[in-house]
Structure formats: structure tokens, C-alpha cells
Amino acid sequence: MKTAQVAVLLIALAAAGGAGYVYLASNPAPVPLAVAPPAPVAATKVLVAASDINVGTALGPRDMRWQDWPEASIGPTYITDKNDPAAMETWKGAIVRTPFVAGEPLRAQKLVKANSAGFLSAILPAGMRAVATKIAVDTAVGGFILPNDRVDVILTRRDPETTKQTGVDAWTSEIILRNVRVLAIDQNFEEQDGQKVIAGSTATLELTPPQTEVLALGKEMGSISLSLRPLADANPTGLEGAATPETGQGVMGAGTVVRYGITNAAPR
């Protein structure tokens, strides 16, 4: 390379470097702005579902937990530690009316407490019915029947045929329903304050649809008594129909037999 060419190249490089220096000097790098840390978000503890909860579940301690929730996002129906610090105890045993997913805030509108409107329908298993029947203390084991006990339902009625034949008033008694659950005695759905005896005038029983028909007919035919069964019979699979083991028949009327809720002509 000739000397002249080298000189021209050096002059060009020097000119480029000078131009870059001038540009940088006139356009300094921007100074980074100081960014303030985000302000802390005010939070309140909200009672939420600890896991997915199905309809009809009775809430227990494992179904609920407290979770920090932004105050700006708290709805008026949420249960917080500010408006109810003892909420886990307050709502223990309440029945879920609509399902919850894990982490969803629990709301009073979706829960039913014992002795409140809607509680009875919430505790009924699918397909079952609640039917009330009048009882007296002397026909309900002296008042020692409690909600969730199992009972047999006994019908006592006058026997007109035997009375006609003998000329003496004759009465008959038969079990028309076996091993049914007592939902409530009067307005009491559960044992309260250590109470061991509930003396009431009305028992609400959990029955299948055919059993409701048997009970309704039995109440028209005579007086109803309850016979207390042992705790060992509390297994739901122990439910039996309305037939009596002695005759295989249910409540008998004039010319009819109700067998598991189905009315047929009585045998002659």
C-alpha cells in the first residue's frame, strides 16, 4: 500500500473518531431514574374453602382456612377476621348449600346454620323426604329420643273385625316402618349444651317417598308411637321397608294393603 493511501486511511479514521466523540459529547447516555418501591397492598384475612366442598357437606375445621385478601377486592358478603374473628367456630357444622372450589371465599348466603330456615332441606340426602308426626312423651321413650337416633314406627289401631266377633273392643299394634332416622324433635336438630333429653310433641323423620305414604296412612288409621333402636343400627344400609316380618304386609285398611307404599287389594 502506498504511503499516500495509508495517510488518507488514517485521516478518515481520525475524522470518524472525532465525529463519534462529538456525537457522544452532545448526546450523553440517559441517567436511569430512581424507581420507588411499590406501596404495600392492604390485606385482610378472609375465610376461604381449604379444598373443594360439595353440596350438603357439614363444614369442619379442615374445610376452612384464613387467607390474606386485598382489601380493595373484599366483597360485602365475605367472612373476614375483622367482622368475625371466631368464624371457624361460628360456621363449624354449617351445611353447604352450593359447592365451593378450593380458595373460594365462604359466604353466609351459601351456608345454612342449624335451626335456621333451609337447614332441614340441606341435611336431607338426595331422594329422601322429611315428614313430621305428632308424638307424646309416653309414646317416644319418655323423651329420650334425640335427633339422629334410629327408631321403629308403631301403629296402634282399633280392630273392628275382632271387636265385632267378640263384642269387646279389640286393638292391634304393628311396626309399619323400621330403622328410620329422626331428623328433629320439635325445632331441635342436634344436641345442645350437653342436653341429654329432648321432650317434644313433634318428631321429624327421614323417609323414602313410599315410606311417607305408609306413615300418612298410618296416622289416619290410629296412633303413632316410636320405638328407639340401638346406636349399632345407625348404619344407613340398615334401612328397611315398611313390611312386617310376621305378615309381609304393611298398613292394612278396609279392603286394601299398602306394601312398600303401593296400594293393592287385600287378600280375602
Automatic annotation (TrEMBL):
It comes from the Bacteria. Residues 44-112 form the SAF domain. InterPro entries: Pilus_assmbl_Flp-typ_CpaB, RcpC_dom, SAF. This is Pilus assembly protein CpaB. It comes from Labrys wisconsinensis.
